[in-house]
Amino acid sequence: MAKTNYGYEKYGREMEKKKKKEEKLKKKLAKNSDVVEDKEEVSSDNKES
């Protein structure tokens, strides 16, 4: 029977964590940019009036 390669398993878990963290960050940045754009639109609408 083959020996378990714990180093490779750890590498896989770390890569999953990294991928998940990057997705969360992208989601957060997208959400923040939408909020900023909405605020800018409201501000520009107020200035025009």
Largest sheet: none
Number of strands: 0
Average predicted confidence as pLDDT? 85
- What is the CA-atom radius of gyration, in angstroms? 22 Å
Q: How would you summarize the topology of this molecule?
A:
Blueprint: H1 6-48
Kindly describe this structure.
- With 49 residues, the chain is mostly helical.
- Helices cover 88% and strands 0% of the residues.
- It is built from 1 helix and no strands.
- The relative contact order is 0.07.
Quick structural overview:
This protein is an all-alpha fold and about 50 residues long. The chain is built from one helix and no strands.
Quick tags:
single chain, 49 residues, mainly alpha
